[in-house]
Amino acid sequence: MADKEKLYKWRGLLWQIIDDDWAVARCMKDNCDVRWENEDDVYDNVYTTCPKCGNKVELEGERREIIEDIIKIINSDKFKGADIVNLDDEYITVTQSKKEDDDYWVRASISENRKGETQLMVLAGSRKSKNKTQLFIDPQNERVSFDQNNDHPREVFSKVNAIFKKSSTLVGNK
After folding, report:
1. In the chain, where are the structural domains located?
2. Which of 4, 25, 67, 169 has a Cα-to-Cα distance from 102 of 20 to 30 A?
3. Residue 103 confidence (pLDDT)
4. How many CB atoms are located within 10 Å of the residue 75 CB?
């Protein structure tokens, strides 16, 4: 959700997001909450007027649609720079989560291998012992591998279990 203390400039007005489904239009000259005119009439456009300075702005469309549009535009900012990965021909946004731990750290990402196939890479380690491992999970070939230049996954994890559509792979103590 957008920051309630920010004002967003769009279509000749400043916009303040109040909650998930409401925004307030403000005058560009003095930040005053504007008055909406002829919004109940059947017109193609609505007008806003600043009660403080009289500045008038014409907006195309109905008030509710305009407010819905600004909320959608502002909320789209949270996906700027997001990685988009094609899995099974569906586009999904890759999210990241962080959990602080004094000893262990984990980083995961979805990427493509040299052949252009989708893979999951997990890099994990211990801050205390400096052990680290890098796992590669290949869902298309249902295979798990690890970087030979780093520690074996058993040095960092007690076990790793990758479950695929037709098989599963267990790395570690059984």
Report:
1. 8-79, 84-172
2. 169
3. 82
4. 13
Of 17, 5, 3, the C-alpha closest to 69 is 17
Geometric angle at alpha carbon 13, from 11 and 15, rounded to 5° = 105
Can you say how many angstroms the Cα of residue 1 is from the centroid of all Cα atoms in its chain? 11
Q: Is the pLDDT of residue 98 over 70?
A: no
Give me 119's structure tokens: 């893979």
- Neighbouring C-beta atoms of residue 111, cutoff 10 Å: 13
**Which H or E element spans position 88?**
none
Whether pLDDT at 127 is above 80: yes
- Residue 150 has phi, psi (to 5 degrees) of -105, 180
Position 69 scores a pLDDT of 92
pLDDT at 59: 93
Q: Residue 79's CB: how many other CB atoms inside 10 A? A: 9
Give the Cα separation of 75 and 52 in Å (integer): 30
